[in-house]
UniProtKB/TrEMBL annotation:
Superkingdom in the source lineage: Bacteria
Annotated source species: Oceanisphaera sediminis
SUPFAM superfamilies reported for this sequence: 4Fe-4S ferredoxins
Presence of the UniProt keyword Plastid in the record: no
Listed Pfam families: Fer4_11
CDD domains: PsrB
Boundaries of every 4Fe-4S ferredoxin-type domain copy: 38-67, 85-116, 117-146
Keywords, ordered alphabetically: 4Fe-4S, Iron, Iron-sulfur, Metal-binding
Protein name: 4Fe-4S dicluster domain-containing protein
Length: 238
């Protein structure tokens, strides 16, 4: 971390909660796809937990070893009707919320939302304060060990802008991940949202963030309670 960032973090300790940290500035935002709103549908019926998405994302975006922009968490759930234990695969990533709580807490405006809905981080602006990490209810953000700045899934926006699919979508062997423009009624994602409207769920809807990552086949036990780290989870049945 350079001297200017260290000085900024030291200055933060002398500010009271709710104080105005810096004047509002206009960011040099990456070009956004005009008139589009990107979202993703993940069909859990097709996810086999192969982690191809996790590996391809790491190869594409090169986060530090042990840190990931997307993962597939594995849970063991005891079914109430049969008392049998079944394994559930749950892909996790940034939800690119309609109302992203990570944006207003950023003191340098390094985290911002593009016109197409994709939430990104300007690493030149980020000071690594981790306010956005704490604000995200989906455990989708982390401080990159190498850059000491906030890191997260960006829907591989650099690929979208040249007509390619995100690495995780392209590598999904089961075709469980679908990304597209939700404003285009003829897009594959729009058709899926229409066909499966009754079965679509998002994570933690009570947070009011309006996530734009939708799940097909998500059990009710996962809607409000999601552990932050990968592993096996046995829901309470008390």
């Amino acid at each position: 971390m350079d001297a200017s960032k260290r000085q900024f973090l030291r200055n933060l300790t002398g500010l009271t909660a709710g104080a105005s940290l810096i004047p509002v500035t206009e960011l040099q935002a990456a070009p956004a796809s005009a008139g589009k709103r990107y979202g993703m549908v993940i069909d859990l019926r097709k996810c086999i937990g192969c982690q191809a998405c996790t590996v391809s994302c790491s190869m594409e975006n090169l986060p530090p070893i042990g840190q990931f922009r997307t993962t597939v968490q594995q849970y063991e759930v005891e079914m109430e009707d049969t008392q049998q234990v079944t394994q559930v695969m749950l892909p996790r990533l940034c939800n690119h919320c309609e109302n992203p709580p990570c944006v207003p807490v950023c003191p340098t405006q390094a985290t911002y939302q593009r016109d197409d809905g994709i939430v990104v981080v300007d690493n030149k602006q980020c000071v690594g304060c981790a306010y956005c990490v704490q604000a995200c209810p989906y455990d989708a953000r982390f401080i990159n060990h190498e850059t000491q700045t906030a890191d997260k899934c960006t829907f591989c926006v650099h690929r979208l802008e040249v007509g390619l699919l995100p690495a995780c979508v392209e590598s999904c062997v089961g075709g469980a991940r679908v990304i597209g423009d939700m404003k285009d009624p003829d897009s594959q994602i729009s058709r899926l949202l229409g066909e499966h409207a009754a079965d679509l769920k998002v994570l933690k809807p009570e947070q009011g963030t309006a996530p734009q990552v939708y799940y097909i086949g998500l059990g009710e036990e996962f809607v409000n309670r999601i552990d932050g780290q990968p592993g096996l989870w046995f829901p309470d049945h008390g």
